[in-house]
Amino acid sequence: MKVCQLITSAWFMIVLAVCGLRAEAQAPSPQPARSSVSAPQKRVVFFGNSLTAGYGVAPKSNLPSQIAQKIEAAGLNYQVVNAGVSGETTAGGLARVGSVLRQPVDVFVLELGANDVFRLVPVPEIRRNLQGIIDAVRKKNPKAQIVVAGLQIPGDFGPGYVTEFQSLFRALAIKNKAALIPYLLEDVGGVPELNQQDGIHPTAAGYRVVARTVWATLAPLLQVKA
User: Fold this and answer.
1) I want to staple 121 with a disulfide (CB 3.0 to 4.6 A). Which of 26, 99, 116, 129 is the partner?
2) If phi over 0 gives left and psi between -120 and 50 gives alpha, with beta otherwise, what is residue 39?
3) Is 35 a residue of the active site?
4) Considering the entire predicted model, what is its pTM?
């Protein structure tokens, strides 16, 4: 585990606690990312917390918007929806996923779990909530492709908890025959110049790296080369 990740763990608790207060307010309606393609036929939904919502960066710089730009550049006919809420937990996601599923979903990118860790939620409970979200998506959209975004946490939560948490994403992907992003913040987590002052949320430049990581997994599902 990188030293700067350990140093910033205290910031994690403070910032995510603040974000959690915001999440208690009514979640905003998911908004489609900008795209010049008219009459989109399929929908890619990014469902997560502040890392998906784009805390601290301009709307055009958040992850869903950057993926929308890549989709547009590839000439694909997809609408990208940012269904991220800052401070969201897996329990909160399970409670609100039904509202996101009022419209059809073709690809569902699931990015949740970090905020549970900082509330010391047991990993089995996190797993049940994430599985419940996947089950809800599949019930409404049996042919939807699921993408599970893997996350990592500082080692000072204890080796047993860290190992159990970080392994649950691969296990979920295998169980549900879903695509896996091994680590969402690859080459960004713990890199000061790619993160905001809180040491948690990527800058616009950081999100460009995150978008490349996500695109490597997402592009084959959309039948284009990464």
Assistant:
1) 116
2) left
3) no
4) 0.83
